[in-house]
């Protein structure tokens, strides 16, 4: 896989859409740089008594439309430019889905699988201690992302609450239910992605049992596969960082999840053939769903993709060089800033519930998410028709219009 700087990709996407929209140069200049970058180091006592120093970031990209909002990623590849790109995409996404947030993202350069639970907790708490004075329910609201989960969010809420001197659940979303988490948050991103899949399938006239390949079997990939199966799609491929499994007959997602829980990997699941993460992308399936990391579909493999549609559930899985190739080949690419926006929409519902003290049932949450996704889809689709461009450019045009209005409304 070629080494591609995600922030450079993000800026190329921005420039492409800004040209189509004829965005004012002042607004474009503002959006080319994040408002604030917190660059922090965290000395952590390891279990063997030694001290290890970790590096982390919180990028607060733009808060014209509301408080900064975006997840926290723990991964060895995390660096400044990756977090900048992810923070920028959050601005676009929050505007596409129409929730009153700006965009942010954070991350720590670490392989959490190499830490004990105690080390992971100390690192998570230290990170919050470092950024505590720059976050808060009305300023910046983090959430989970790759390799972070409700338990980590719980440690972080606790650490922030100690510093604030009061229990402050609205500072972070993706919390466990016992600490003010929302019903439906866990499955929200995958669930909402399948709402988009259904709308795309209608446009493409896909039949019942249309085949789906999902790359990545974490929170997003797992729930996407589960809801896709429940909606009569046939999931034939799943993968994780160790490789993929293939079954032409279709996979039973609940059983595969149980296997993964016990074995720590998908590989070896009975009755399936092994497949690499690279080959998975080139399979002749109806729908391809990257749900892991950035830059998976690039200039070198875009011509080999055989799917009719790509539903981007990961952030930034397709590079700007691949986009025109896929567009020319008439492959319908539903961009990340639309298809995975249900995650942040559910975070918004969690934050609203924390602030109002009124809690919704799972059914109510999922119903609201359905509405958000349908409206966002229709808005992006209509923008695409109006401008005659791909869905990503259309989503950016819609988002930039809203962000520019907010920046100008607040006064340059
Ligand atoms: P996760 O940590 O729960 O799961 C990540 C999965 O990807 C794991 O199964 C891991 O094994 C797999 N993986 C890692 N490297 C891989 C590789 N090279 N090839 C194939 N698989 C690989 O993370 P998640 O929360 O499911 O997030 C996945 C993606 O979705 C990320 O891009 C994230 O930014 C995006 N996203 C997540 C949410 C959310 O609510 N969690 C919301 C919007 C977008």
Number of helices: 14
CATH structural class of one domain = Alpha Beta
- Count of strand segments: 12
How are the strands of the biggest sheet laid out side by side?
A: 9-8-7-6-10-11-12
Bound molecules: nicotinamide-adenine-dinucleotide
**CATH fold annotation of one domain:** Rossmann fold
**Cα Rg:** 20 Å
Q: For the terminal residues, how far apart are their CA atoms?
A: 41 Å
SSE run:
HHEEEHEHEHHEHEEHEHEEHEHHHH
Give a brief rundown of this model.
With 412 residues, this protein is α/β, with parallel strands linked by helices.
What do these coordinates show?
It is globular and about 55 Å long. α3 (80-97) crosses α14. It has 14 helices and twelve strands. It has helices spanning 6-21, 25-31, 80-97, 117-131, 150-164, 185-204, 219-230, 253-263, 277-280, 322-328, 336-339, 342-356, 362-387, 391-410; strands at residues 36-45, 51-62, 68-75, 103-109, 140-144, 211-215, 234-240, 243-246, 273-275, 287-290, 309-311, 332-334. A hairpin with a 5-residue loop joins β1 (36-45) and β2 (51-62). It has a domain at 6-179: 3-Layer(aba) Sandwich (Rossmann fold), CATH 3.40.50.10860. The longest helix has 26 residues, at 362-387. It is of the alpha/beta class. The strands form two sheets. A seven-stranded mixed beta sheet has the order 9-8-7-6-10-11-12, sandwiched between helices. The protein has a five-stranded mixed beta sheet with strand order 1-2-4-3-5. Nicotinamide-adenine-dinucleotide binds next to α7 and β7. Residues 144-147, 189, 215-221, 239-241, 277, 291-293, 313-315, 340, 343 line the site of nicotinamide-adenine-dinucleotide (NAD).
């Amino acid at each position: 896989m070629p080494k591609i700087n995600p922030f450079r990709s993000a800026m190329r996407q921005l420039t492409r859409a800004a040209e189509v929209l004829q965005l004012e140069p002042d607004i474009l200049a503002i959006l080319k740089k994040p408002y604030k970058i917190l660059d922090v180091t965290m000395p952590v006592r390891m279990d063997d008594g030694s001290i290890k120093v970790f590096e982390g970031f919180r990028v607060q990209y733009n808060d014209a439309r509301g408080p900064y909002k975006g997840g926290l990623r723990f991964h060895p590849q995390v660096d400044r430019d990756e977090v900048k790109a992810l923070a920028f995409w959050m601005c676009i996404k929050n505007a596409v889905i129409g929730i009153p947030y700006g965009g942010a993202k954070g991350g720590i350069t670490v392989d959490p699988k190499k830490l004990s639970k105690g080390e992971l907790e100390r690192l998570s708490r230290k990170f919050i201690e470092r950024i505590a004075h720059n976050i808060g329910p009305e300023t910046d609201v983090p959430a989970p992302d790759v390799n972070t989960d409700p338990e980590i969010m719980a440690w972080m809420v606790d650490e922030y609450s100690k510093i604030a001197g009061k229990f402050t659940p609205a500072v972070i979303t993706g919390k466990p239910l016992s600490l003010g988490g929302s019903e439906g948050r866990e499955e929200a991103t995958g669930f909402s992605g399948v709402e988009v899949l259904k709308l795309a399938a209608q446009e493409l006239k896909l039949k019942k049992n249309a085949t789906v390949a999902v790359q990545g079997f974490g929170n997003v990939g797992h729930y996407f596969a589960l809801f896709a199966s429940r909606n009569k799609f046939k999931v034939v491929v799943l993968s994780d960082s160790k490789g993929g499994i293939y079954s032409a007959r279709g996979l039973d997602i609940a059983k595969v999840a149980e296997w993964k829980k016990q074995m720590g990997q998908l590989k070896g699941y009975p009755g399936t053939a092994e497949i690499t993460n690279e080959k998975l992308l080139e399979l002749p399936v109806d729908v391809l769903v990257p749900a892991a990391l950035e830059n998976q579909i690039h200039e070198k493999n875009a011509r080999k993709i055989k799917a009719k549609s790509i539903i981007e559930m990961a952030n930034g899985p397709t590079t700007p060089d691949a986009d025109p190739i896929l567009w020319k080949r008439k492959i319908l690419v539903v961009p990340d800033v639309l298809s995975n926006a249900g995650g942040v929409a559910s975070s918004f519902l969690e934050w609203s519930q924390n602030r109002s003290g009124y809690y919704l049932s799972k059914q109510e949450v999922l119903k609201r998410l359905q509405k958000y996704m349908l409206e966002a889809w229709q808005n992006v689709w209509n923008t695409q028709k109006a401008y005659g461009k791909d869905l990503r450019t259309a989503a950016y045009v819609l988002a930039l219009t809203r962000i520019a209005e907010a920046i100008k409304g607040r006064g340059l």
